[in-house]
Design goal:
Length: about 100
C-alpha cells in the first residue's frame, strides 16, 4: 500500500456520493486536508445554486465491470482455485490487450 502524499505538496480530493452529505463528514475530510466533492442531498443542485461535479466511474469499478463481462468469471463454474486464478489472469491479459490496441 502506498503512503498518502503530503496534502501541503499535492492537492488531494475526496469524491463521495450523497450518502456522505453530513456536516461531520465534510468537517473531518476538510481537517484531513482533502478538497471535498460531495453532492448535496434533498433539494436539487440547481435550486441551491451550487456547482455540480461530473460523475466519473472509479477505476476499480470500471475494471471490475470489464472482468464481469467474462461470463466464466462472473458465474464461477471452476471448482479449483488454481483454474479460477488462471481464468482471471487470462481475462486481465485480454483486457490489457484490448486497451493497448485502442491506444495505437
Amino acid at each position: 500500500m502506498l503512503p498518502r502524499p503530503n496534502p501541503g505538496i499535492l492537492e488531494q480530493h475526496a469524491c463521495e456520493d450523497k450518502g456522505y452529505d453530513f456536516p461531520a463528514c465534510r468537517r473531518k475530510l476538510t481537517r484531513k486536508g482533502y478538497t471535498v466533492h460531495i453532492p448535496y442531498r434533498g433539494l436539487g443542485i440547481e435550486a441551491k445554486g451550487l456547482k455540480r461535479y461530473p460523475s466519473r466511474r472509479w477505476v476499480v469499478e470500471r475494471t471490475g465491470r470489464w472482468v464481469n463481462l467474462f461470463r466464466e468469471l462472473k458465474i464461477r463454474y471452476c471448482r479449483k482455485p488454481i483454474n479460477y486464478e488462471a481464468l482471471v489472469q487470462f481475462a486481465n491479459a485480454i483486457i490489457c490487450f484490448r486497451m493497448a490496441r485502442s491506444w495505437i
